[in-house]
Amino acid sequence: MQPRDLSTHSVYRAGRGIEEVARELDVDPDELVKLSSNENPLGPSPAAVEAIQQHASHSHTYPKSSHTDLIDAIAREWDVSPSQVWLANGGDGALDYLARAFLEPDDRVLVPQPGFAYYPMSARYHHGTVGTYQLDKADDFEQTATTVLESYDGERIVYVTSPHNPTGRELPRAELLALADQTDDSTLILIDEAYAEFSETDSAVDLVDQRDDIAVLRTFSKAYGLAGVRLGYLLAPPTWADAYERVTTPFAASELACRAGLAALEDDAHLDNTIELVRWAREYMHDRLQPPTWPSGGNFVLTAVDDAQAVAHASKEHGVIVRDCTSFGLSDCIRISCGTREATKRAVDVINDIV
């Protein structure tokens, strides 16, 4: 007995945890600075931590009330109907629900290259096929409707990340509308806004009520500091929102995740402090790094180097963990997450010394 043929499926390679690297180097984890996974430099919302602690003793119950309450709170946050909120176990869980709802066997999707590996992974899990559109370094990774449309051939879903990971580049609203207008009526444009809180560009969420061919993905992992909790959601057009109940798993987010999300949504101070710090760190890296960088709307900066693997290895030896972007097809780039002021300054000094 064997599983189905998975030879065409890729493996998601997450950045290594700080404890793993500490064991490898035989050092105390507190001696290391991890700026490789775009995590919140301030940690989780204190209100979310308190909520998790308060409700831990209720984790033997299913999250019926908290699940409903969180969906209602997200709906109020974005001024949409609760039926338009597809709550999930992380943003990747929402991608799976979208693929279940939209893809027939052999339907095609279009994903960015470089880009988030889970877009094509999710599509293939659900028997879709994958095409790519290229964001070129020669064009400074600029995102435009034309960039996507040059590779478009009637795909069922087109995935757009804005701000884009790992480059940080954004798709302007005018370009998004041009893309939606020039694709088929049966094509959905999925806008992944995992990093949108750090951008100064308005969210595309308001378009969800105006059109039935645009949906928006959001997450609690980045700005709210809940990456370890695994909590995300999709905002869907009202015309097909009821599909969620037909494709979701029972209780798509845990009791503790829902309680943490509810508390985090109310913790404006933590969110504001996070955004302020990230924008400072981003500009500090743009101004102080010796190797070239690209504009970024996210909580990270992409930096050009001669040999990403060598620079990332040397940086790690100096106690600063950055992301070697070879796995994104960018063997001459590293990605540096925004850290605390101390961590960001240390990373800039280390990288400058290495290059």
UniProtKB/TrEMBL annotation:
Keywords: Amino-acid biosynthesis, Aminotransferase, Histidine biosynthesis, Pyridoxal phosphate, Transferase. One of its GO terms (molecular function) is histidinol-phosphate transaminase activity. It catalyses: L-histidinol phosphate + 2-oxoglutarate = 3-(imidazol-4-yl)-2-oxopropyl phosphate + L-glutamate. SUPFAM superfamilies: PLP-dependent transferases. The modification N6-(pyridoxal phosphate)lysine is found at K222. GO terms for biological process: L-histidine biosynthetic process. Residues 31-351 form the Aminotransferase class I/classII large domain. It holds the Pfam family Aminotran_1_2. Pathway: Amino-acid biosynthesis; L-histidine biosynthesis; L-histidine from 5-phospho-alpha-D-ribose 1-diphosphate: step 7/9. It comes from the Archaea. Its EC number is 2.6.1.9. Belongs to the class-II pyridoxal-phosphate-dependent aminotransferase family. Histidinol-phosphate aminotransferase subfamily. This is Histidinol-phosphate aminotransferase. It comes from Halocatena salina. The lineage of its organism: Archaea, Methanobacteriati, Methanobacteriota, Stenosarchaea group, Halobacteria.
